[in-house]
Amino acid sequence: MAKDRTVEDDLVDLFSETTTSVALAKYLYERYGDEIYSDQLRTIGERIASKEEFVLHNDTYVNALLYTDLMLQNTSKSLYVFAGKEGDGFLSTLSKSFKDAMGRIRDNKGQVKVIGVTTSETESTFLNEIKEQFPDNFEIKPLIVEDKTQLKHFIVADKKHSRVEELHAELSPKTNVKEIKAEVAFNNSTKGEFLTKFFEELWAMI
Fold first, then answer.
1. CB 90 within 8 A of CB 25
2. pTM above the 0.90 mark?
3. I need a labelling partner for 148 at 20 to 30 A (CA). Which of 50, 87, 114, 192 fits?
4. Where are the alpha helices (DSSP H) in 37-86?
5. Sheet of 78-84, strands arranged across
6. Does residue 191 contact residue 52 with C-beta atoms inside 8 Å?
7. Where does residue 206 rank: exposed (0-12), middle (13-18), buried (19+ CB within 10 A)?
């Protein structure tokens, strides 16, 4: 006799369904991510804490949320984000981990900087709220371009954890989760320091 399905079974199916949209992935991760991915959050977190150098590849938006969540949970000195202005939706989904990281970085007198790639002078509600909460260690600059899809977005934390996306079309709530792919490197200071320097040079030019 088949086992009765649970709510958790249905959630796992939704997370793994290839037709899941970015909007649904955000909704599910924000509400159930800790429960659904508790084993991965723990085991990967232990590898990061052990200072093991390793690389993971995210093949979906859900993986992107999971791995970035782990980056934020293991960040305490600096955080640089180069992303589209819609990236504030990505960070707002991870609001708790992001704000916790902001607090640790502030306590260590570090800096959080965001370059928001956009085609117009738009405002980010979530990031403006973060600026009000953390006025001393958070800065954001817009980078206005004609085509946002020709720039690879990246995040670098503590000069050793990084996530670099592949190029993709502009995201919308209906975008398929499979459209977002990236390489995530943990405890790789060589790559982290390179991206940190690149970000700082770009920041100085804007």
1. no
2. no
3. 192
4. 38-49, 61-73
5. 54-58, 182-186, 161-165, 154-157, 78-84, 111-118, 138-144
6. no
7. exposed
Question: Higher pLDDT residue, 9 or 76?
Answer: 76
Give backbone dihedrals phi and psi of 33, rounded to 5 degrees, phi first: -60, -45
Please state the φ and ψ torsions of residue 107, each to the nearest 5 degrees: -65, -30
| Chain segment 110-157, per-residue pLDDT in tens | 999 999 877 566 667 788 888 899 999 999 998 877 666 667 899 999
Domains detected in the chain: 7-205 (3.30.870.10)
- 17 three-class SS: coil
The rounded Cα 203 to chain-centroid distance in angstroms is: 19
DSSP H helical segments within 37-187, as ranges? Answer: 38-49, 61-73, 87-93, 95-107, 125-133
Find tokens 């959630």 and name the residue: 11
Within a 13 Å sphere around the CA of 65, how many CA atoms are in the beta-carbon half?
30
Which residue from 124, 99, 116, 96 is spatially nearest to 199, judged by alpha carbons? 116
Q: What element of type H or E holds 127?
A: helix 125-133
* Residue length of the chain: 206
3-state SS, residue 47: helix
Q: How far is CA 88 from CA 44, 95, 98, 115, in A?
A: 25, 10, 11, 11
Using DSSP's 3-state secondary structure scheme, residue 154 falls into strand
